[in-house]
Sequence to fold (289 residues):
Amino acid sequence: MTGFGRGFEASETFAVTVELKTVNNRFLDISLRLSSELQQLESTVKRQIGNRLSRGRVDVNLSYERTTEINYELNRPMIAGYLSAMKKMRDEFELTGEPDLNVIARLPNVLLPKKDELGEDFIVGVEKAVNFALDDLEKMRENEGEMLRNELNFRLSEIENRLPPIEAEAATVADEYRQRLAKRIGEFLNKSDIQIELDQGRLAQEVAYLADKSDIAEEIQRLKSHIEQFRQIMTDEKDVGKRLDFLTQELNREANTIASKTGNLVIKENALAIKSEIEKIREQVQNVE
Fold:
């Protein structure tokens, strides 16, 4: 589920800002890039996010400022190498002059901020900022979740509206088979010189066999049951997405079976419309956590 959250925490010595951006993903994928100084916090931040979120790609941006004086260290190997090269150049080309302090000071990375150990108060501050960002993110996702719930309920209602025509046509399938089979046998006998009396009992057996093979009452009942379970799960708070994803597969399975069991055009048309709604549900379910 898409969303954005921002958290901020400050003290006398630092200020931390955390921004979270999430997009749809079937699994939880946390993208977190930290400077070498903050690498030790990577597992802590990912664990915090993993405790609150279960699906989606999460991009984490963590920035901080120190409000105390920053101490610098000299990049001694770099300075020594520079002075040595200058001395060789002076001797080799018989030049005069001495290295200028201002020139050396302007060299890239000649002065490096001193790496201090992360204090406990700073680590706690980062954790608070992450929690604030997660709170902000969840508020936004709750609003989107309500719209998503309404969309899914609408799609389920569309499926339910297609079931009565299917049930009505399913009740006439046996008669259709009887008429079709009797017609074909009659056409065959009319073309044949052999006089054969049609065995009505045998015809009834064949019709019953074909009607049983094309019976979709069980599939219709399972569709109704899955829809009821779907709505119930949407009211839960945990592990909703994965369960809805499974139920969507089951809905699609029943719709496929209904479409394949009979040649009735009305049933097939409504079954295909149900499959179209299920596909729209599948796309939305990927957004549900």
